[in-house]
Amino acid sequence: MSEVLLQAEQVSVRFGGLTAVDAVDCTLRAGELVGIIGPNGAGKTTFFNAISGVQPPTSGRLLVAGTDLTGSAPHHFAAHGIARTFQTPRVFPDMSVRDNVRFGMQFAGRGRRAPAGLASEGEILAMLGLDALAHEDAGAITPSQQRLLEIGMALGTRPRVLLLDEVAAGLTEAEVDAMARRIRRLRDEWQLTVVWIEHAVGTLLRYVERVLVLNQGRKIADGTPAEVINDAQVIEAYLGDELAEGIDA
Ligand SMILES: Nc1ncnc2c1ncn2[C@@H]1O[C@H](COP(=O)(O)OP(=O)(O)OP(=O)(O)O)[C@@H](O)[C@H]1O
């Protein structure tokens, strides 16, 4: 089996009386392409926040390539190879597209050894189809290009694990498929581990090999798309809606 890059052990995040993430265990290995699905408010983004250092867990442990980073700041997670995007793209509008990717490189520290292929901002922009826009201000490109740029900023940190939070939100169906193919290429060509939260369940299930399902903060399923869509708890959590659309698709 390939190397374990991230291990979440019984991770919980509580906000006052609300348990947003409830004792979630999760092991991510090198080269996996994993989807996370779950109804609104299931705890998906909060789980990402926990495993990227944005929201320290209330309890549980986070090991990144064997190092305990529980409670560490996001830049420590970045320096250990964890990168993420946010639901709302957070690009620097007055900086060029290329400088946004460079910023990602500085965030993780200059000393970080780049995984093979992820050498320069030029290669990252080419992979994302943004090379022709390298000198444009990030604020002047379209929202869907800004979503790609946010992936570029995350890739600039030279990650081993890339966490994508609804990067296809608001895109047309054709754009969602193009995004999914690009994400698959990132994994294939740069041997990244990719974890992808998306409400477009149908697309997600077609492209990932493994799916985690969260419901009310708990992990209720973890398996192949075929296993997950036949799981009684998953069907109940979705009450047929989004999952049915996913299966139809
Ligand atoms: N900073 C916070 N303070 C208080 N409650 C929060 C905070 N962040 C999230 N929550 C609550 O935690 C629960 C999980 O939210 P989260 O955003 O992680 O769900 P999600 O599965 O990503 O939802 P969606 O699919 O709608 O994005 C929700 O009830 C949400 O209101």
From TrEMBL:
Species assigned in the record: Variovorax dokdonensis
SUPFAM superfamilies recorded: P-loop containing nucleoside triphosphate hydrolases
Superkingdom to which the source organism belongs: Bacteria
InterPro entries registered for this protein in UniProt: AAA+_ATPase, ABC_AA/LPS_Transport, ABC_transporter-like_ATP-bd, BCA_ABC_TP_C, P-loop_NTPase
Protein name: ABC transporter ATP-binding protein
PANTHER family: CONSERVED COMPONENT OF ABC TRANSPORTER FOR NATURAL AMINO ACIDS-RELATED
Keyword set, alphabetical order: ATP-binding, Cell membrane, Membrane, Nucleotide-binding, Transport
Matching CDD domains: ABC_Mj1267_LivG_branched (cd03219)
Domain ABC transporter: 6-241
Listed Pfam families: ABC_tran, BCA_ABC_TP_C
GO molecular function per UniProt: ATP binding
Organism lineage: Bacteria, Pseudomonadati, Pseudomonadota, Betaproteobacteria, Burkholderiales
